[in-house]
Amino acid sequence: MSAMIGEILTLVIMALALGMDAFSVGLGMGMYNLRRRQIFKIGLTIGLFHVWMPLVGILAGKFLSAKFGTFASLIGGLLLIILGVQMIWGSFKKGDEKVMTPVGFGLIVFALSVSLDSFSLGLTLGIYGAKTIMVIICFGIVATLQAWAGLLLGRKVQGWIGPYSEALGGTILLAFGVKLLPLFW
């Protein structure tokens, strides 16, 4: 029984660490002037991606080398950089339609960018034989809650700093994307 509690505690700690990107990026994206319904959908989508990506990673972890994790970080970083630049650019082009928003395809790109590292961790957990159901439930719930917290806090901050909030949000996404790039570690 205590071994199971220890395993769950370890997974929760991993999920919290892994979900910090969902919180941080949610903080930036929350400054995009989102409605509560959009925040709810974005959080759920991120949570679902944090279920599917480690699941696929766990399954693939039995077959792939650990070097794939670097590739996933590279792709995730590049996606966040693209989103950040688009938000910064969009903040200076008032009145024009945004190129990418956290709706539809933009939401998929956003959720994918913050969940690619969970794929990498899934690879590792698959190699070590972690309990798949416990991993995906834990990662999904924690990522959803952290994304909601970041989005709601970002929405609040957006109200405080007004028209500069979208540029600040884009800068946060851009900086986080650069941080994820393996070249800068």
Secondary structure tally, helices: 6
Low-confidence stretches: none
**Helix-and-strand structural type:** mainly alpha
Measured by DSSP, the beta-strand proportion falls in under 5%
**Strand segment count:** 0
Output the keywords.
185 residues, mainly alpha, 81% helix, globular
Polypeptide structure, described:
The protein has 185 residues and is mainly α. It contains six helices and no strands. It is globular and about 55 Å long. The termini are far apart.
Topology record:
Layout: H1 2-30, H2 36-61, H3 68-92, H4 105-128, H5 132-161, H6 165-180
Brief characterization of the structure:
It is built from 6 helices and no strands.
